[in-house]
Design brief:
Chains A, B: Keywords: Kinase, Transferase. Chains A, B: One of its GO terms (molecular function) is 2-dehydro-3-deoxygalactonokinase activity. Chains A, B: Pfam families: DGOK (PF05035). Chains A, B: This is 2-dehydro-3-deoxygalactonokinase. 2 copies of one chain form a homodimer. Helices cover 36% and strands 22% of the residues of chain A. With 298 residues, chain A is an alpha/beta fold. In chain A, helix 4 runs antiparallel to helix 8. The termini of chain A are close together. The relative contact order of chain A is 0.14.
Chain lengths: 298, 298
């Protein structure tokens, strides 16, 4: 197999890894050079800085997933349509340099109200399925824009986006709720997070439930230290509320940053929903699987 | 009856009126001196500037409703407990100057998740009931924090707050959705607002539905001009969604600024829900009714 340089290029961070044949990272680097920090025309130089040394290996191949394929990224990679499997994605790569540097397409699906889109989470989903040796799963990818992905027979059938992380950050920093919260997030307060989850479930409406973070603080039933964990629980709970989770169904697959997996894990456990947790290695596994697809074709 | 100076002192604006015996405004003034713009200790001077001339009339009485009674206001006026009617409120005034300047208490009620509070809307509710000569109603007061108030036999039984206006403003200005919207709001687009209401109703989850404002724009199904009206409809729709509105019930009472009454009116009409619309005169009528209560007591 050709030396594989795996790149997960998001909005805020650029993560790169040199992978072995099994898709495990031999070496990893993380740079604060997400696409929002890169000037138009500056992507090649940032890529060179991040992993130019690794690309000198004979036959090296770089596969990039994430927002680098968006209109504001390195090169726009058109979305592939759902349902889509590994081979669909491998067939629709956008080549920045022929046979050397490619961007994985994001996916688009139809939803009840509007189309939905993602970039990067399709690769994490494929990687998660590889890691767990499963073909069917509901994969949850918490983040600024959380994704709930339904995979069947190894293909992404459909998915839905929840702006959970962005709402949390807006409310935490810029709303009236910020006034009764400590400036600093401090340690996660599991009890306050679970209380927030319960409030979201009981209320059934975020516009109303969010105000409870203020009134509970006003009457002294929520401390400034616990407020941020409560608010986080409210938002995660609102995301989970509409998912109609059933403890009798197979375990969810949860993959993302350790901090977010921890939070969602507390909320899911509180609701009695089983899950298997994976870390950020899913992206590397997914890119390795796409590389194997490419190799099998040639 | 004593000359009555009515004051609606909110977060952003200070509105004052000189009322006649029937509670109608003879003269009105609006100043951009909401409580957030007033330094601690500066309230008396701002009050003097706004209506000091009117207060020189012999026997003049000033009644103040709104955020001026909050911890950050002129003087903290403890909340009255629900259910509460006009006489309960009149009995619990906080006097800034004995028998001359008083602040109307806000109300507190218990909710399924947390207590709820309001300041000012109780007075508007009492005023709306007076204007319509009704004792029972559901009164909707749209705003930064919209209130849904249930009145029975002339008393406020319970109410619920929705952070609709604040969420709109956060998403409109500070979220990723802002990127695909025109800088300027422009004219309200009724069709786009109705489409947003439908999206909220269909989706049932704001964290998910909000993302449609982005994806519809990405695929060219929502113009930058219509985006703000669509987002407004999404948020109003999310507020209405959980209210279990029934076209068979008596008409809602809608009271607030003309711009917001217009928006909520479009949404309610679209859903086939009857309503009666009132303007900002409700606050004056409510303060006049509290003044009559005071007079009857003496």
């Amino acid at each position: 197999m050709r030396p594989l340089v795996a790149v997960d290029w998001g909005t805020t961070f650029l993560r790169v890894a040199r992978l072995d044949a099994a898709g495990s990272a031999r070496e990893e680097r993380e740079l604060p050079r997400g696409i929002l920090s890169v000037e138009p025309g500056g992507f090649a130089a940032v890529f060179q800085e991040a992993c130019g040394d690794w690309m000198q290996a004979p036959g090296a191949l770089a596969l990039i997933c994430g927002m680098a394929g968006s209109r504001q990224g390195w090169m726009e990679a058109p979305y592939a349509a759902c349902p889509a499997g590994l081979s669909d994605v491998a067939n629709q790569l956008t080549w920045v340099e022929p046979d050397r540097i490619a961007i994985v397409p994001g996916l688009m699906c139809t939803g009840p109200v509007a189309p939905d889109v993602m970039r990067g989470e399709e690769t994490q989903t494929f990687g998660a399925l590889q890691l767990l040796e499963r073909e069917d799963a509901v994969v949850v990818l918490p983040g600024t824009h959380s994704k709930w992905v339904r995979a069947r027979r190894g293909r992404v059938e459909s998915f839905a986006t929840f702006m959970t992380g962005e709402f949390f950050s807006l409310l935490r920093r810029h709303s009236i709720l910020a006034r009764t919260l400590d400036e600093d997030d401090g340690e996660l307060d599991d009890g306050a997070l679970r209380r927030g989850v319960d409030a979201a479930m009981t209320s059934g409406n975020l516009l109303h439930a969010a105000f409870s973070a203020r009134t509970l603080a006003l009457v002294g039933q929520l401390t400034p230290q616990a407020g941020s964990s409560y608010l986080s629980g409210l938002l995660i709970g609102e995301e989970l509320r509409s998912r109609h989770l059933d403890p009798a169904k197979p375990a969810l697959v949860l993959t993302g940053s350790p901090a977010l997996v921890r939070r969602y894990g507390v909320a899911l456990a509180h609701l009695g929903i089983a899950f298997e947790a994976l870390g950020q290695e899913s992206a590397w596994q997914g890119l390795a699987a796409i590389a194997r697809c490419l190799q099998e074709r040639t």
